[in-house]
UniProtKB/TrEMBL annotation:
Keywords: Membrane, Transmembrane, Transmembrane helix. The keyword Transmembrane helix applies. It comes from the Bacteria. This is Bile acid:sodium symporter family protein. The lineage of its organism: Bacteria, Pseudomonadati, Pseudomonadota, Alphaproteobacteria, Hyphomicrobiales. It comes from Camelimonas abortus.
Length: 333
């Protein structure tokens, strides 16, 4: 019975699965999707505002100065992942659809996702301040590094830098975080007394991002473009890449002597790939006729990473030294 209870999915994982099913059956599209995207952006901005208001200035300063952690995350994102993508391309390109193979390689060249990395770090009880700095830096650098890596590794002509991605990161993440830091003297105490509020925003923003992302994938013909075999092959490839990244991040963090909180930030920031930046960059870097198929691996990887990391975050939270204390991260919504 104890083994079964450990295998039983928690409420948040079930909500994620239900969100994916809902997006598959009733995807949000058209003007409704645009409106929902605005609400989702507002929820993400609120998340970073609350994180800014909750974190002390000392914690933020420590996060900015944590250069060893940031260097590890950037190495995982822009060195290990591209090497894994090249190895996959050399080993399996003859057995997979060429455009899907390009898509797998492309997702390996992308920066880390931001909101879910930080939300999962918070849920797991990790170093949120370092995660905010590291994930944001990955996305800002990725705007420049990803087109460069695509040109070098994939030999794609053209391309460019999406300045809208830069302004989006600044407006949706950094400015709310700074505003939260500014408001901390007035609302910091309230948030410390009502910790489930931040936890609710963490989980709620992830569910909204999942629904919006998967709705977009379904609206672009996810299930029409893939047959069962293609889906199985892609799922196995994406799961293998994610598993390798998670193992490498965990091993490297422990090998280098990072604390448990820092290990959590490294694992969640160094193992993910961004859908929000990856889709618009793909439309610039690749011919329009092939973009739809090339981004399918990214769409699938995005869903797998959210589901897997939700389980992993809950495991970290449940095994924390103070996991039994009331109000800690990891409780159900």
């Amino acid at each position: 019975m104890r083994i079964l209870s450990r295998l039983r999915p928690d409420v948040f994982t079930l909500l994620l699965a239900a969100t994916v099913a809902l997006a598959s059956l009733l995807p949000v599209t058209g003007e409704a999707a645009q409106a929902f995207a605005l609400v989702t952006k507002a929820a993400v901005a609120l998340l970073f505002f609350l994180h800014g208001a909750k974190l002390s200035r000392e914690a933020v300063t420590e996060g900015l100065a944590h250069w060893r952690l940031h260097l590890v995350v950037l190495s995982l994102t822009f060195v290990l992942f591209p090497l894994m993508g090249i190895a996959f391309d050399l080993s399996f390109s003859r057995w997979i659809n060429p455009l899907l193979g390009m898509g797998v390689l492309y997702l390996c060249l992308l920066p880390s996702t931001v909101q879910s990395s930080i939300a999962f770090t918070s849920i797991a009880g990790g170093n949120v301040a370092a995660a905010v700095c590291s994930a944001s830096a990955s996305n800002l650098l990725g705007v420049f590094l990803t087109p460069l890596l695509v040109a070098l590794v994939m030999d794609v002509e053209g391309g460019g830098v999406s300045w809208s991605a830069v302004t989006g990161i600044v407006c949706q993440i950094l400015l709310p975080f700074i505003a939260g830091q500014t408001a901390r003297p007035w609302i910091g105490g309230f948030l410390n007394r009502h910790k489930p509020l931040t936890s609710l925003v963490d989980r709620g923003s992830i569910l909204m991002v999942v629904y919006l992302a998967f709705s977009d994938a379904v609206a672009h013909g996810l299930w029409r473009r893939l047959d069962a075999l293609d889906l199985v092959e892609l799922a196995l490839a994406c799961a293998a890449l994610l598993a390798a990244a998670l193992v490498a991040a965990t091993w490297l963090a422990r090998r280098l002597g990072f604390s448990r909180e820092d290990e959590i930030a490294i694992v969640f920031c160094g193992s993910k790939k961004t859908l929000a930046s990856g889709l618009p960059m793909a439309s610039v870097l690749f011919p329009a006729a092939s973009v739809g198929v090339i981004v399918l691996p990214l769409m699938l990887f995005h869903q797998i990473q959210l589901m897997a990391c939700a389980v992993l975050a809950r495991r970290y939270a449940d095994t924390a030294p103070d996991a039994g204390a009331p109000g800690v991260a990891g409780e159900g919504i």
